[in-house]
Amino acid sequence: MKYEAVIGLEVHAELSTESKIFCSCSAKFGAGINTHTCPVCTGMPGSLPVLNRQVVHYAAKMGLATGCTVNRLCKSDRKNYFYPDLPKAYQISQFDVPICENGEVYFYVDGEKKCCRLERIHFEEDAGKLLHDEIDGTVVDFNRCGVPLIEMVTRPDLHSSAEAKEFLETIKTTLSYLDICDCKMEEGSIRCDVNVSIRPEGSTELGTRVEMKNINTFSGAVRAIDFEVARQIDVVEHGGTIQQETRRWDDVKLKNTVMRTKEDAQDYRYFPDPDLIAVEIDDAWMDKIRSEIPELPVARYERYRNEFGMTAMEARQLSDSFAKAELLDAAARSGKVKPKAAANWILSDISKYLNDKAVELEDTKLTADKLIDLIVLIDKGTISGAAGKKVLPAMFETDETVEAIVGRMGLKQVSDEGAILKIVQDVLADNQKAIDDYKAGKNVTGFLVGQCMKASKGQGNPQMINKLLAQELVKLG
Amino acid sequence: MELYQKTAGELSALLASKEISAVELAQDVLARTDAVEARVQGYVTVTKDAALAQAKAVDNQRAAGEPLPPLAGVPVAVKDNICTKGILTTCASKMLYNFVPPYNATVADKLAANGLVITGKANMDEFAMGSSCENSAMHPTHNPHGLDHVPGGSSGGSAAVVAAGEAPISLGSDTGGSIRQPASFCGVVGLKPTYGAVSRFGLVAFASSLDQIGPFGRSVEDVALLSDVIIGQDKMDSTSCAAPFGSLHAGLNPDVKGLKIGLPKEYFGAGISEEVRAGVLAAAETYRALGAEVFEISLPLVEYALPIYYILSSAEASSNLARFDGVKYGFRAQGIEDITELYVQSRSQGFGSEVQRRIMLGTYVLSSGYYDAYYKKARAAQRRIKAEFNGAFQKCDVILTPVAPTTAYKIGEKSTDPLEMYAGDVCTVSVNIAGLPAMVQPCGFDAHKMPIGMQLIGPRFGEQRLLNAGLAFEQASGLKNIIAAL
Q: What is the ipTM score, two decimals?
């Protein structure tokens, strides 16, 4: 029998707020153990949480960007359970009324547009970390306690690991466009749990689902899903039934094992947190959030393909990076350069520079105006394309104008016909052998153009050299 | 008259005029404590050295001519569930037997900023759960007016030390009557402010939506003075809010002519002892004589207040007290390898039986399948009770009721039956459920010379009205600054 996989995801993203969700401690990653802590985030007796409004702002922003309904009145609930990394023994989260509901995320898989519905987005606090290594016993590091998270829960709309991966990539790009998450996978900024079930192809009923935890990368999600789908098919094919359970993915051993079965499902005893009052998002606040949402990656991707005529690969590479897409669009909007020319620069030399130097575009001094100036100078013939490549590093690194860099580096192209003709004539005078070869029917153009470029110290306009050289050679007949 | 016998208002004047020094005052109060504390046992910790140092600092400031707040140099006792930086804060529990907070509660900061001198941490029922102070893991506190009687609870220590002259004023906390019932039992004045008027930051939570810190004193004026110190919105407590009034002390005015006082008939029915009923009704007559309009009203939903209270408070407590797990601070069971076992043993050994009972009750009512029937229904009923009080305050300015069914009972008399103990909260819990302010003050004595208290309930942020009405009665009755002989 053929089977269809049915997949739902629960994606956790850490929000890049300055301070934690309920106290003023820094939310930054990587500090010394228990240095970003205070009585509130370590759950000391008598301490009280105060909701960081930036968390509400960011969560609502993600909701608006994914077509969710935003609930204006944000309440918080307690999820009660004991674990050493949870100092209050409850996590402050949102239960019955999440901040955002009923969204849709669109993405492309092999050129086909897909949609995955979002059931909800809610905000909550992260827990701490247990460190078992290199010491005698276990240390609880509370730095991560109270780092704000949003949890995005999808409907079971995904049907393959490839779809899941593209969905996750789209979520990541969207978070990055919205500037609400630093998307550093290696620091655990985005994590996901996966729910998998299978059903006979053509069936519309949902099978028994298995939840998988401990998935830390998108490629890990792909491996975990592929394994679990295969495992479930194997169980069913051998006459077994799937148990509703939670399994832990091991990305080293490439298999999963049972964490807990349905029977030991915990009762979290959710109830409204009496320490927090509901925060209301009023119209002005909502307008502000809405105004901060840029054109999103999938929309840009489609525009680049349809309006700029780019390939899927080009459109994807450009739209994946908010900074690159913004650069391209600013250049295109200027009307001074062809979008395609700007795109070529961004995809080739600019991307190469950023990769080589391992820097982000927004951390350099390259601006859209500079890129436009560069392309205009090349289009006008003021500098050659090759000279343009030489100018580029200084455009990233200094505040100089492109003209100034060109001038300083002496890269201005010579397009004065008289001067070029003089160079051509001098080169011909010095290269009798080439003229002889030419007369003997050999192709010496390339050699002679090279000599002319050399004589012009690289600044001669190559088109003009070609043209004049051809004229002079014809004269020599 | 010894200094320890004076009210905070009188001491404030003596300090301001430099007739006495804060150190002299602290020494006198500490000497009184030395003399009677062994019998009263109102404190968990007496902070003698810190008190003298603070008094000295205030004296130095005054000598330097610095302008000082009214209560600068006045001693104050603080209930042991209010965090005091560097001072043991146990909640009268084995669970926190060694807990020294590295931070102050907001009210503790306010005491310090106002130059008050903390004499010590007052005994209480463990984690504020109880009505007799017998649930303290440290020791019971004795009622200064009859040492074989309970002082009430849970703020029994805070009430007893004020009644015994071991401090002129103190802070307690009130979740279901924990300030008012001990004030009544000990013959002192106690105010439970409007929910949100005083920051709860640093108050070890029992039931967050009901808890409120409030003052004790031996006069209405003293309670007004200490209220002025602690009331105010706090950015560290999102449930706190700005009170729509200025200094309550400055606003004191004992004129009750035309004041409409409602007597809810449900508070005077069966279960209330004859002496208590007679005492409160006599107070109503006093008000009538002073020109107030006194009339009967009805609050029929009040009979549901007790179950609503025990559902909501236990539910919140079960979550609030989950953090005491033996991992981070306080008591940890020894010789255990497994984390679950560490939780079970630390909590079983660290919490007393009443606390465990409430945690189990609360866990039950929040459990899947029971939540709707208990917690959710109780929240809905809470809204009805609030509405009922709002309706009553359309008709009257304040409500006058008994505080407890009886005067202080004997130690051990009720401690074996939790339900009988819970029933004693019948007159006080509805105030917390509705988030209202209420004040208790003495209105007489029973046949055994034990104090009888009366409760005045006001609308939200009606503190000034309560204090003024209380002051009028205090002046008319002369029942002020009652110190147990001991």
A: 0.96
